[in-house]
Specification:
Helices cover 43% and strands 16% of the residues. By secondary structure, the protein is α/β, with parallel strands linked by helices. Among the domains are: 3-48, no CATH class; 51-183 and 416-459, Rossmann fold (3-Layer(aba) Sandwich), CATH 3.40.50; 249-289, no CATH class; 471-526, no CATH class. A six-stranded mixed sheet has the order 6-10-11-3-12-13, with helices on both faces. Strands 2-1-4-5 form a four-stranded antiparallel sheet. It is globular.
């Protein structure tokens, strides 16, 4: 490709062309004069491309776990999978998660692997037929870039021409590492939260350690393992609060610096000196003490978390660090009338605040040069987003997530009609098994956002709002049939009405509606 075409493609938003232009200017190449100035301009162009949309556009699965064959086009902002138990909703997330794991793995280093399909995940029927399992994903960066990957697993004893294809994931990771070697840049978030997320951990770490709280690659820590502990967030918050509140005494740092000066006078900076190991340890320790930049970043992170947590508790005053007589640091939410300690959260609180807090933490880490890290992009998977949440919070969770992290593509599952009432119908994929063809399919409902929960339950989940196996509901259904057949005054109807009144008189509005219907029918009967 000529230099002119390469420059034009880079200008139009092509990621690989933009990276090549940057490398050509940085290192010097044919038709490109080495120029730090032009390399910097090219680098900034790449950053602009990376900060645009990053999303999964298409998912194609075959013979993976229960799903025999399914191709899905996803919404670039939000996709919510619904369906009966066993329809394959979590399987879809797992397939996506395996592909995402290769992105973060290659960003971290070259010679590594993401997650592969393993033998037990091959569909049993496919094994018997000697067919391979595969999960294909097609991602987009903005409008000009497509990144495709394919994970393959063949049954034992079977050979196939199909191969796992992660070259484009690898190339993306290599390009990112080239950029990071030049300057800091923001990175996309890839994260999977399964139903085991934020469970109580018995192994709490000492919160006093002061390792780098803004190490960028910590944003990918356990990003595909799903079982994220709330304690990791609490530890991080405690460190931020200590730094921003200047709990760490400068006198400690000055003391260590004095020791380093004494060692320098003794020649300890020489590797042959017996005191060199001590000298190196103390120098490393000094680097752990926060500078003004770290203090400002810590305060910014705390402020961001407080802003997001106020969407749940509007009367939140501050997040604070409390050290009681037991000597253990505790992080608490100071509300108007009480303090709620994070380590004493209920399951619902742990899941909700853990989710919001962990996404915030990872975006803060992965976007070190962003004016607002919470505007970072990426793909976040959440299984059963309503997990442990009261219906009132189920009606808020997606709204809060999208408002707080507007450039993240959320892909999630739910069984909750309360959740679905807050989602546009075009963002929903209702997964089902066609019994006639024994194939997996999906449909997009016609109306959801703003609807009543019982309407969604009936029209989208195809579940009767009343539990049909309850005896009282059977009485009601039978009574309605009798009324519709003008038999409301029969002995059977009278006996049913006695039981129904005992059950729901002045409480069940359907009985009031039936009484109006009986009055109309009685009037018509009298006119005959």
């Amino acid at each position: 490709m000529s230099a002119r075409h390469l420059l034009n493609n880079a200008k139009n938003g092509n990621f690989e062309a933009a990276v090549q232009v940057f490398l050509n200017y940085k290192d010097g190449a044919l038709d490109f004069e080495k120029s730090e100035e032009y390399a910097q301009v090219a680098f900034e162009n790449i950053c602009d491309i990376l900060s645009s949309e990053f999303y999964l556009n298409e998912l194609n699965i075959s013979n993976f776990k229960k799903i025999l064959d399914l191709k899905i086009i996803l919404h670039k902002n939000l996709t919510v999978f619904i369906g009966e138990n066993g329809a394959g909703k979590t399987t879809l997330l797992r397939g996506i998660q395996k592909n995402l794991s290769w992105f973060s793995a290659f960003i971290l280093k070259e010679n590594t692997n993401g997650e592969r399909i393993i033998d037990p995940e091959i569909n049993n029927q496919a094994k018997e037929n000697g067919e391979v399992a595969y999960v294909n994903c097609s991602f987009r960066i903005g409008t000009e870039n497509r990144i495709d990957g394919q994970l393959i697993r063949e049954p034992q004893g079977i050979t196939t021409d199909l191969r796992t294809e992660v070259m484009e994931y690898r190339k993306f990771g290599k390009n990112i590492r080239e950029l990071l070697a030049y300057q800091k840049t923001n990175l996309p978030l890839f994260m999977f939260y399964d139903i085991e997320r934020f469970k109580v951990s018995e192994n709490r770490k000492n919160l006093s350690s002061q390792e780098n709280v803004f190490y960028q690659f910590d944003g990918y820590e356990k990003s595909s393992k799903s079982r994220v502990a709330l304690e990791s967030l609490i530890d991080w918050l405690a460190k931020l609060l200590k730094i921003s509140n200047e709990v760490i005494e400068n006198s400690e740092k000055l003391k260590i610096e004095s020791q380093v000066d004494s060692l320098l006078k003794a020649g300890a900076d020489n590797k042959d000196n017996p005191l060199n190991e001590l000298y190196e340890d103390l120098v490393s320790l000094i680097k752990l003490y926060p500078n003004d930049e770290t203090k400002n970043a810590s305060q910014k992170a705390v402020n961001s978390l407080e802003k997001i947590f106020r969407k749940i508790y509007p009367d939140l005053i501050r997040i604070q660090l409390i050290n009681n007589d037991d000597g253990e640091d505790k992080v608490g939410l100071q509300l108007k009338d009480e303090i709620i300690f994070l380590h004493q959260f209920s399951d619902g609180q742990r899941v909700l605040f853990g989710l919001l807090g962990d996404i915030t933490r990872r975006l803060m880490l992965l976007n070190p040069v962003a004016d607002d890290p919470l505007l970072g992009n990426g793909v976040v998977l959440i299984d059963e987003v309503e997990l442990h949440l009261h219906p009132s919070w189920q009606q808020k969770i997606i709204l809060i997530l999208r408002d707080s992290f507007p450039n993240i593509q959320f892909i999630m599952t739910t069984h909750s009609p309360h959740v679905i009432t807050t989602v546009e119908h075009e963002c929903i994929r209702s997964i089902y098994i066609d019994n006639e063809t024994n194939t997996f399919k999906y449909e997009i409902p016609k109306f959801t956002k703003g609807a009543e929960s019982n309407v969604v339950l009936e029209d989208v989940f195809y579940v009767d709002p009343r539990p049909q196996d309850v005896e009282e509901v059977k009485w009601l259904d039978q009574y309605i049939k009798l009324v519709n057949n003008d038999q409301w005054d029969s002995e059977e109807a009278k006996e049913l009405r006695t039981r129904l009144d005992k059950w729901g008189k002045n409480k069940e509005t359907e009985l009031d509606k039936i009484d109006i219907e009986i009055s109309l029918r009685a009037f018509k009967r009298s006119k005959k």
